[in-house]
Amino acid sequence: MDTARYQSENATRWWWIRHAPVSHLSHEIYGNTDPDCDTSQREIFSSLAKRLPEDALWVVSSLRRTHQTAQAIGRAGYALPELRVEPELGEQDFGDLHGRRHTDHAATRRDSFVGFWPIAPSEQAPNGESLAGVQARVVSVVERLGPEHSGRDIVCVSHGGPILSILSHALGLDLERAVSFSVPNLSLTRLHQLHAPISGGPRWRAICVGETAR
Question: pTM here?
């Protein structure tokens, strides 16, 4: 048996892209607020346009930076289909922390995740949500769309929190470990969601994580 081919044909092939950078707010926590992103890095969009699969379902969150990123890939040469909006794929709600400078916030922290995530993964932001809450809603979308589109490619333009959340789910990692992954803006993370896994084997296969354009 050609195991790799068997797995690919019996899987939903997810292509996760973290949105383009929000350059003017790079020093602040902006979470699930809705600023524009910077789509000026044309060579990266061109690279993505050439690499992404044709005839894919495209999914974005309800935040404009995911739409702008997808549209920039379309302008770079990809035949972009209609975008499917899934609000549950939005970024973490950091509540009262929105607008706070990263350096000022870091100076007040006592947890061990400084430099990895704005708050500890198990912590709920004041008047916001936890990364565990993000994971619950993201997994619900993935487990609904995946079986519905078995054998197809899904390109999902989303955010850092949702991508770390699905990595945690797919690889069976605690969120505290999953935040160790680096998922830069405009990076590509590929996962195969297997619907006919080999008996006793995993349901997911990681192809690449946080890969940046060459």
Answer: 0.94
Closest CA to 207 of 9, 3, 16: 16
CATH topology of domain 3-211: Rossmann fold (3.40.50)
Distance of CA 34 to the CA centre of its chain: 16
Bridge-based pairing of strands 204-211 and 84-85 is unpaired
Whole-number pLDDT of residue 1:
42
Residue 23: both structure tokens together: 């350059």
Whole-angstrom distance, CA of residue 63 vs CA of residue 140 = 19
> What are phi and psi for residue 82, nearest 5 degrees?
-65, 140
Smallest Cα–Cα separation from 192: which of 166, 214, 173?
166
Residue 2: pLDDT band (50, 70, 90) is low
The domain ranges of the chain are 3-211
- How far is Cα 38 from Cα 60, in angstroms, rounded to an integer? 17
